[in-house]
Amino acid sequence: MPTDTLRLFFALPCPREQAEAICAWRDGLGLGGKPVAADNLHLTLTFLGQQPRARLEELQLLAAGIEAPPFELRLDHLGGGRLGVLWLEPSQLPPVLPALAGELQQRLRAIGIALDRRPFRAHLTLVRHAGARPREAHPDFAWTVERFALYASEPSARGVRYRELSSWPLVPGLPPLPRFRAEPSPPR
Ligand code: 2AM
After folding, report:
1. Mutate to test the pocket of ligand 1, among 9, 89, 113, 118 (most ligand atoms within 8 A of CB)
2. Which tens digit of pLDDT belongs to each residue from 58-77?
């Protein structure tokens, strides 16, 4: 039965080909823990938490107003945090990425959505509760980011599922959102 709220976040989808390659590489590391399913791999731009379903159209309109160009995303570093979370991240942050996250966050705050105050940190979560963090890992995955999407996080029989609700293209030739600049990421 549909609920009145949805657990929402904006993210960059991980294309199927790269998702499969990333999962194959990750699974070869023997990390244990709870691996994120290939279908669920994404890079979060901003997490909204529970929002009224009735606000969906407003959120979709907000996202549709964002104009940014496509960019190359290269995930070439394995990072880790608390609770055995391991993720892929870029060693060089493409400037459009924090700009896009910043633009979304600014627009969401302007319509009264309370967001986490922590600075944006670009990461694609691979596994939770991993047993160990490998010392020698040299990931190198890259793709051209051509769209961003709104997702609902939903329970399913096989654990959480991130369902893509809508997506918006990044348009070649547009300026890279010059009002926003990359902020350094804090250590986790
Ligand atoms: P994570 O991968 O580091 O857990 C859906 O949960 C997505 O939103 C995940 O990418 C998650 O990041 C991110 N996210 C950011 N803040 C969150 C929060 N407070 N609770 C749950 N997910 C959050």
Report:
1. 9
2. 999 999 999 999 999 999 99
| Secondary structure string (H, E, C) spanning 20-41 | HHHHHHHHHCCCCCEECCHHHC
**Residue whose CA is at the smallest distance from ligand 1 atom 14:** 47
Whether 183 is in the pocket of ligand 1, judged by its Cβ within 6 Å, is no
**Residues of the chain predicted below pLDDT 50:** 180-188
Which amino acid residue places its CA nearest to atom 8 of ligand 1? 47
126 exposed, middle or buried (CB, 10 Å; 0-12, 13-18, 19+)? buried
At 122-131, the pLDDT tens digits run 999 999 999 9
Residues 5-169, CATH architecture: Alpha-Beta Complex (3.90)
